[in-house]
Amino acid sequence: MGEMKALRGELRSTRRHTRVLLSGSEAVLTHMRAVRANLDATQACMNATQVGLNAMQAGMNAMQASLSAMQASLDSAAAEPRVTSGDC
To answer: What's this model's pTM, rounded to 2 decimal places?
Structure first.
């Protein structure tokens, strides 16, 4: 009789430990899902940053082209013969 009582006590204890383990496993799984969502959000942010950097690079290239065109125009104007008041 005492042995049965001890076995029942062990069974109850085992059930309790199983519930605690399941609860802990669910908490770990929930945390892992949150980590995954955070990683996905970080990746999306990095992608958006890359798009922004690419746009900035394109803008800088356009500004450089514009500056080059202005420099060419200035060089061309400087190379033209100048009209002075004595030429009239």
So the answer is: 0.60
